[in-house]
Amino acid sequence: MASNSYQALRSHYQAALKRFIASSRNLEILNSVSSNQLQEHKQPSQAPGVLYVLDSSFNPPTLAHLRIASSALLEKPSVPSRLLLLLATQNADKPSKPADFEDRLAMMELFAQDLLSHLRATSSSPANASLQQIDIGVTKKPYFIDKAAEIEQSDVYPNPLEQVHLTGYDTLIRIFNPKYYPPEHTLQPLGPFLSQHRLRVTMRPDDEWGSKEEQKAFLLRLAQGGRENEGGKREWAQRIQLVEGKKPGERPVSSTKAREAIQTNPQDLDWLVPSNVREYILSQRPYAE
Q1: Which of 193, 247, 250, 271 counts the highest number of beta carbons within 10 A?
Q2: For the sheet containing 198-202, what is the strand order?
Q3: Per-residue pLDDT of the chain (289 residues; tens, 9 = 90+)
Q4: Is residue 42 part of a domain?
Q5: In a domain, 112, yes or no
Q6: What are the CA-CA distances from residue 215 to residues 37, 96, 162, 256 (Å)?
């Protein structure tokens, strides 16, 4: 994509973001990328049976994000679905820098194109055409359960519609941290979400988050009633799916590593971010100091 096209994309999101922040809305879809490129013949759209939600800071979108999304979409390819890439403009834990939100939104759209290309190359089954579109959304809500409620209450998606939130294990730990649920600081506010929706959690065994066995033990403890004293319910464990992350021996991929590579070894972006995202980073330099 030419540099002026990137600048036009960025300007589009800059203007849309400004309107959203000035509005009273808490959630808005700023753009959508159609999945028609996955289909040889356009099929009549069906009501989606599931909404996958990938909520991240996308700073920048990486191949880890792509793996999380594509593995979920290819797991049940016959179910009509949509994917929401969601960016919070008020993140509870992470600062808004170094990349501006409009740059991240532009990269999210490019990431959506990369993801569709990956799905087309990965699966020859026509069932992968059940992904109808990828939405680029923003929310003012910093906390997980509030974001899910805003999606549910919006007029964007059919209601009721099961949401499957695609997260990493580190996010699961934050979701089950009572400090995020004042004033009582119990896990009870998770009840409405986990009675209707699901979590699909990619494990990330490492020194910080523990081994695969330790991460599975977190869910087992919930299932055996180990969080009941905090308001957690055993049956919630049935709404949480743990899935494999990177294979043994594979290099770890993260947005942090991508930002480090931009400053020190730009060639490493080849294995850290998808191709369209990489070209945007190298052309527009959103992480220039």
Answers
A1: 193
A2: 27-34, 131-139, 81-88, 50-55, 163-168, 198-202, 240-243
A3: 778 899 999 999 999 999 999 999 999 999 999 987 545 444 556 789 999 999 999 999 999 999 999 999 999 888 899 999 999 998 766 656 789 999 999 999 999 999 999 998 886 554 455 898 999 999 999 999 999 999 999 989 998 999 999 999 999 999 999 999 999 999 999 999 999 999 999 998 777 788 899 999 999 999 999 999 999 999 999 999 999 987 777 888 999 999 999 999 999 999 999 999 999 999 999 998 7
A4: no
A5: yes
A6: 38, 29, 25, 22
Total domain count, the chain: 1
* Residue 166: closest CA among 262, 94, 85: 85
In the three-class reduction of DSSP (H, G, I as helix; E, B as strand; rest coil), residue 236 is classed as helix
Q: Which domain holds residue 264?
A: 1-34+47-284
Ramachandran quadrant class, 285 (left: phi over 0; alpha: psi -120 to 50; beta: rest):
left
Q: 243 pairs with which residues across the strands?
A: 202
On the CB side of 279, CA atoms within 13 Å amount to 13
Name residue 87's amino acid. L
Q: Which residues pair with 134 in a beta bridge?
A: 33, 83
Could you give the C-alpha distances from 27 to 73, 86, 138, 146, 246, in angstroms and in order? 23, 9, 6, 10, 32
Task: Specify whether the CB–CB gap between 200 and 166 falls below 8 A.
Answer: yes
Beta bridge partners of 137: 29, 86
Instruction: For residue 272, count CB atoms less than 10 angstroms from its CB and return exposed for 0-12, middle for 13-18, buried for 19 or more.
Output: buried
CA angle 179, 185, 189 (to 5 degrees): 105
In a domain, 40, yes or no: no
What region does 200 belong to: left with phi over 0, alpha with psi -120 to 50, or beta?
Answer: beta
Specify the CATH number for the domain of residue 58.
3.40.50.620
